[in-house]
């Protein structure tokens, strides 16, 4: 029966039903939007603690100086009565962060951009304020501050379908087959170009325990460019942890309870400045992560002077004892825009064979042994899914100890 054959009353009824449906949809949408707004507000309130002092960074970040006892870590039910620790032992090793060759291969000291406009008082820690837009960029409010699953490179047994499915690509050096109680590296800092906002490029070290299944424990630290997470293309210091292969536990920086910060000078997630330029000045950061033999917490140090804080041992299962694998290197997301390999760069965006001043490097890579000593790693392996896109080359010498150059441009004639 057509519209013209319906009686007037039937037509009126159908129109009422139609408009009622529209009203219901729009009120449901309004309800959904207000629910989302409420959830975002709740999340921001939990993350942004009351500040003793606020510093406006030149890059647009707001750094809140929060009293050390009010930081997000203490939202964790197990940390309600936790007494803030200091490390009992510090690993002894061959290289301090400043020991580099006095020739052209000299790198400069590095700081964070917000330092130019102020510093945090004693007994506070600097926290990068989370804004509404940061949370709204995430795939969901619940997933904000978390990595997507399966982002750890699994040397030797990478299956091609797994690589493409997860979209993550790596160029790393690694050691396995022993018990490791920490790792150190000095990491060259660049600003790689990111093709898509949902992609990232990072350079980090991984402290790994357990299998590569659902129970993987990981502590990670380094630098990253992530438009999705930070809303810009700045190079930023970051950390990450998980005790269940990125499923329900862990997060970046201080975006959940877990990592306890003790340092008032370095902000997790804040921009690093200055950064290296091609055939120009080179800058690097030194990161050390080690397990305190007495308390069992995993500590992190940035440079020679900044002990940043620790991951309490109870957060982990396998890492409560030791790590079974250490990895150093780069990672990017390849979302295959328009069916092609991404042109997101890793490291400097140049291949390892270009060498110093052009390719990105890790130098003085070391592991911490059971006696809490820093040692040169034995039997370093390397791994990359597609060496025509991103590659890695290792070496060693007197000044740099064990080192490697890594990275690449992504999409190029040999990488489609």
UniProtKB/TrEMBL annotation:
Residues 162-416 form the Neprosin PEP catalytic domain. Pfam families: Neprosin, Neprosin_AP. Residues 1-28 form the signal peptide. Keywords: Signal. PANTHER family: OS07G0205500 PROTEIN, PROTEIN, PUTATIVE (DUF239)-RELATED-RELATED. This is Neprosin PEP catalytic domain-containing protein.
């Amino acid at each position: 029966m057509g519209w013209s054959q319906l009686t007037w009353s039937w037509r009126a009824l159908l129109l009422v039903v139609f408009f009622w449906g529209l009203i219901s949809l729009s009120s449901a949408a309004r309800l959904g939007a207000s629910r989302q707004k409420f959830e975002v507000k709740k999340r921001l309130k939990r993350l942004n603690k009351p500040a003793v002092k606020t510093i406006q960074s030149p890059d647009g970040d707001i750094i809140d100086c929060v009293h050390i006892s009010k930081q997000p870590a203490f939202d964790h039910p197990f940390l309600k009565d936790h007494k803030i620790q200091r490390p009992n032992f510090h690993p002894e090793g061959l290289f301090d962060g400043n020991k580099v060759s006095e020739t052209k291969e000299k790198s400069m000291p590095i700081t964070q951009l917000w330092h130019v406009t102020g510093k945090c008082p004693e007994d506070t820690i600097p926290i990068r304020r989370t804004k509404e837009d940061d949370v709204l960029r995430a795939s969901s409010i619940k997933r904000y501050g978390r990595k997507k699953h399966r982002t750890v490179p699994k040397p030797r047994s990478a299956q091609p379908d797994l690589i493409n499915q997860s979209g993550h690509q790596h160029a790393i050096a690694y050691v396995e087959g022993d018990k490791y109680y920490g790792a150190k590296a000095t990491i060259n800092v660049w600003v790689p170009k990111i093709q898509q906002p949902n992609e990232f490029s990072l350079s980090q070290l991984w402290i790994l325990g357990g299998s590569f299944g659902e129970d993987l424990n990981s502590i990670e630290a380094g630098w990253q460019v992530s438009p999705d997470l930070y809303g810009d293309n700045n190079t930023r210091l970051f950390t990450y942890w998980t005790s269940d292969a990125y499923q329900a536990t862990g997060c970046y920086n201080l975006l959940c309870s877990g990592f306890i910060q003790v340092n008032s000078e370095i902000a997790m997630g804040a921009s690093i400045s200055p950064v290296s330029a091609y055939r120009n000045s080179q800058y690097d950061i030194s990161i050390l992560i080690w397990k305190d033999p007495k308390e069992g917490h995993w500590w992190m140090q940035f440079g020679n002077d900044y002990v940043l804080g620790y991951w309490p041992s109870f957060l982990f299962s396998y890492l409560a004892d030791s790590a079974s694998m250490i990895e150093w290197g780069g990672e990017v997301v390849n979302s295959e825009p328009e069916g092609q390999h991404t042109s997101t760069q890793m490291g400097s965006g140049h291949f390892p064979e270009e060498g110093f001043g052009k390719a990105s490097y890790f130098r003085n890579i070391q592991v911490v042994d059971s006696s809490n000593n820093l040692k040169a790693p034995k039997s370093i392996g390397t791994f990359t899914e597609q060496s025509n896109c991103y590659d890695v080359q290792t070496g060693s010498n007197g000044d740099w100890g064990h080192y490697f150059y890594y990275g690449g441009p992504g999409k190029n004639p040999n990488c489609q």
